[in-house]
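Q: Given only this backbone (238 positions), what sequence would you predict?
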């Protein structure tokens, strides 16, 4: 019996279509690497924008700031909307991280279907794309039981970093950023309030998406355990 993604893989390929599966694995790996690279670039951009905001707000002597091809003038509009822009990129980074996980699940499902011996060896974890981001777990939770002690340690550290970095960057940074803006321009500043509303909306969307992702992950994990138990002749869960 198969999980949702595994069932979709089973429906998409014929039993003897090993050549087609191999070609699709290459496509999936390319997409996996593209998402990984995008997450790395976005991580760097987030830190640069956060540093730029702190510098622009703290010093009126700075007239403009250049970050690579991006040039920021030290105006009230730029200061007001930088936290909202950062909030959007943080939300998009979370979207990319969940997409990374789904691609990983797809890659594993194809391996499990057409290359079961390689799948059971877990050798693909060695060459899986490495995410250059402090809030992305290096492995999907369904692989946790099959990891080495070092890999389990890395997984644990990444999970702690997930919680810490999201709270600090998404919540902590945004709170202190708007505190500084309100202290500088007052509550009557319309642009500050608009920016604050946008950031609050993105934070709510983040919480909703996080709830959906976590719920689906738990359901998928329970289903996998149930299917594994059925294959071994154990009774159903619940």
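A: Predicted residues:
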């Amino acid at each position: 019996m198969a999980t949702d993604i595994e069932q979709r893989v089973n429906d998409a390929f014929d039993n003897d279509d090993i050549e087609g599966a191999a070609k699709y694995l290459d496509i999936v790996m390319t997409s996996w690497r593209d998402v990984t690279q995008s997450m790395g670039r976005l991580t760097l951009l987030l830190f640069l924008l956060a540093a730029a905001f702190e510098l622009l707000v703290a010093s009126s002597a700075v007239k403009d700031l250049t970050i690579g091809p991006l040039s920021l003038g030290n105006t009230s509009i730029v200061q007001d909307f930088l936290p909202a822009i950062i909030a959007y990129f943080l939300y998009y980074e979370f979207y990319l991280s969940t997409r990374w996980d789904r691609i990983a699940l797809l890659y594993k499902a194809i391996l499990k279907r057409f290359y079961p011996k390689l799948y059971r060896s877990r050798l693909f974890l060695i060459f899986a794309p490495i995410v250059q981001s402090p809030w992305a777990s290096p492995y999907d939770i369904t692989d946790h039981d099959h990891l080495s002690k070092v890999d389990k340690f890395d997984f644990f550290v990444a999970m702690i970093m997930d919680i810490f970095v999201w709270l600090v960057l998404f919540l902590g940074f945004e709170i202190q950023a708007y505190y500084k803006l309100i202290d500088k321009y007052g509550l009557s500043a319309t642009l500050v309030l608009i920016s604050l509303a946008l950031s609050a909306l993105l934070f709510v969307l983040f919480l909703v998406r996080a709830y959906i992702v976590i719920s689906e992950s738990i359901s998928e994990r329970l289903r996998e355990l149930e299917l594994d138990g059925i294959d071994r002749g154990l009774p159903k869960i619940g």
